[in-house]
Give the backbone structure.
Amino acid sequence: MPTIYEAHQSVPVVLVFHGYTGTATGMEQGSGFSQLADQENFIAVYPQGLPDGDGGAPFWASVGPIDNGVDDVLFVSDVLSDLQRKFCIDARRIYVTGFSNGGGMTGFLACRLAGRIAAFAPVSGNFYNPPGGCSPGRPVPILDFHGTADHVLPYNGIPVSENAAWPLPPVSQWLQTWAGRNGCISGPTIFLREPRVTGEQWSGCRGSSVVIHYRIEGGGHSWPPAIDGHSPASIMWRFFQEHPLA
């Protein structure tokens, strides 16, 4: 909870999802969102994934309830409902981010819960094609970070020839697909060029949506470094503030 929370004043919520084998505690310590929540007066929430069926490592069912019958979309919906019962939440300003498998969960929620969650900011996500496709029902603001030297979830994807069960689309394809869903008419255009970071944006999108991508040049499978002097959490928060639910 932010230190200046007052029960009569509605506040935004940011859900922050850990990666595969990660923990809620580790995500809180590494993301910087709790400190930012105190400064900006929003509630940062760090859900904890359940053990998977392979070895008991925490994970998110980022393509639906296919492992142990876990339905994490329903779980997130229940978490939001519980938060709204207990606290004064601004229902137009609920946001999601996550790293790795948590980034994949962020992308999946953009397909499944865009009616309740305003904007989405995955980091190094595993963007598998969700069974049943992706039908968000509205244009969705997307902010994405991914390293070009990510060897866990490669920037250029994993082709069917290498993994028939779980092929991974290239990051550029995933972004272009979202730009198409949002009806963006231009992009990607480069708005930031640093030695280690390139910022790209698709614009002219329907509603107030946009697709923004930070390509971390030579970046591995990790939370990004500061960009143009700003932490990833602060960049996400600025993006979130610009995109409440209509």
Observations:
- DSSP finds six helices and ten strands in the chain.
- The first strand starts at residue 11 and ends at 17.
- Residues 72-86 form the longest helix (15 residues).
- The beta strands are 11-17, 43-45, 50-51, 58-59, 89-99, 119-123, 142-147, 186-193, 197-203, 211-216.
